[in-house]
Amino acid sequence: MAAPGENLKVNGDRLWDSLMEMAKIGPGVAGGNNRQTLTDADGEGRKLFAKWCDEAGLSMGVDQMGTMFARREGEDPDALPVYVGSHLDTQPTGGKYDGVLGVLGGLEIIRTLNDLGIKTKHPIVVTNWTNEEGTRFAPAMLASGVFAGMHEQDWAYGREDAEGKTFGEELERIGWKGEEKVGERKMHAFFELHIEQGPILEAEGKDIGVVTHGQGLWWLEIRLTGKDAHTGSTPMDMRVNAGLGMAMITEAVHRIAMAHQPNAVGAVGQANVYPNSRNVIPGKAVFTVDFRSPDLAKLTSMREQLELAAEQIARDLGLGIEIEPTGHFDPVTFDEGCVTAVRNAAERLGYSHLDMVSGAGHDACWINRVAPTAMVFCPCVDGLSHNEAEEISKEWATAGADVLMHAVVETAEVVG
Ligand code: HGY
Ligand code: MN
Ligand code: MN
Q: Does residue 381 contact residue 388 with C-beta atoms inside 8 Å?
């Protein structure tokens, strides 16, 4: 006996058109997007998403972190909703699909169910989590972290960007600070469709990633204090060079990650030297370390080894050093039942699939702490992401949305 809606398929053309429409908002300089969180472009993207949700008959709720919840009623209004979504904010040199595919893939489920007049027992809620990227306001997954009780809301409101603007001020300014208390919504389950942001699915020729786990993460901000001085007239043995310290610690991050192979990564992503003048020895350096591993012991060891190495380098160079953790989550194991729903959906639809660990962090990593959660990956070209050249195919997007829809609809229980 065929499962209800067994041959249920999304409208891939409509999904692709919506992705391309959203990509016009906050364009980058090389074909991608710069729609950073709580900028005017983010506000525009939110408005477009809200318009589409309204057209699809969804009722919109917004919480005090600006997260958007667009609800399709179920036949049993008391049944906990099945949530589906991701994020619309992008990196400064981001792609068109990171996060956006998960939000608009969720909307496409609603549009398809509306087209076919399919009803579900549980309501379905399409979600846009605020500030998943954490590039303007660290840490990443800020709103879903508050929702899951990992961060205090006031602390989140106080997070500052490079210009000293706070999250709370900017959320008010773009007009997306909602009334709802964060975290009060209870979920039957949460599903997130996302591009893999790595090379495995494409290399293996697989359509779908069944995400069983997520890597853990440590973000550290390191501030080195030396002494501004003339690059020409200051003898080498009199220099207190914060730029040199940053370079040596950056190399140590790489060396430590390599020493923890396999399944460990590390890099310095953001690096600033001051006064950043070509003939002044930098008296200050501020930079960020990103360590990740699915293995908690390795993650902890990398952080510990880096802190020891950095303090030794600072001593050797006579530098002041401050190390501030700015982001962290332990490795994640997604919900067995939800993961099985994703795997069965791919099987049922005849899509090739592969169990895998997420290299990137996602809102699902936090929501997994408060609701049964799983993720669906689709391949991306050359595994490239956080780059304006990020690319996927319409077929990959459609297959991912088909699997997402089957997992969501099966969990929400079709009733007619
Ligand atoms: O950093 C991450 O893994 C995510 O892309 N924000
Ligand atoms: Mn993302
Ligand atoms: Mn991202």
A: no
Q: What is the pLDDT of residues 64-105, one digit of tens each?
A: 999 999 999 999 989 999 999 999 999 999 999 999 999 999
Instruction: Confirm or reject: Cβ of 361 under 6 Å from ligand 1.
Output: yes
Report whether 81 contacts 71 (CB < 8 A): yes
95 CA → ligand 2 middle, Å? 10
Task: Classify burial at 373, counting beta carbons within 10 Å of its beta carbon; exposed 0-12, middle 13-18, buried 19 or more.
Answer: buried
The environment of the single-atom ion ligand 2, i.e. residues with CB closer than 5 A, is: 98-99
- Do you find a cis peptide bond into 275, omega within 30 degrees of 0? yes
Percent of the chain with pLDDT over 90: 98
User: Residue 204 corresponds to which tokens in the numbers above?
Assistant: 């293996």
* 196 pocket-lining for ligand 1 (C-beta < 6 Å): no
Ligand 1 binding pocket includes 390 (Cβ within 6 Å): no
360 CA to middle of ligand 1, Å?
5
* pTM of the model as a whole: 0.93
Contact 69, 62 (CB under 8 A): yes
pLDDT at 6: 62
Q: How many CB atoms lie within 10 A of CB 276?
A: 11
372 lines ligand 1 (CB under 6 A): no
313 CB contacts (<8 Å, ≥6 apart)? Answer: 245, 248, 249, 252, 319
Alpha-carbon distances, residue 87 vs 153, 363, 407 (angstroms): 19, 8, 19
> Residue 132: CB within 6 Å of ligand 1?
yes
Classify the C-alpha dihedral 167-168-172-173 as positive or negative.
Answer: negative
The CB-side HSE value for 53 (13 A sphere, CA atoms) comes to 27
Say if CB 374 and CB 355 are below 8 A apart.
Answer: no
Count of CB atoms situated within 10 Å of the CB of 402: 28
Q: Average pLDDT over the chain, rounded to whole?
A: 97
* Separation of CA 195 and ligand 3 centre (Å): 10
Nearest ligand atom owner, CA of 387:
3
> 390: helix, coil or strand?
coil
Residues in the chain: 416
- In whole angstroms, what is the distance from residue 61 CA to residue 236 CA? 61
Q: Average pLDDT of 133-146?
A: 97
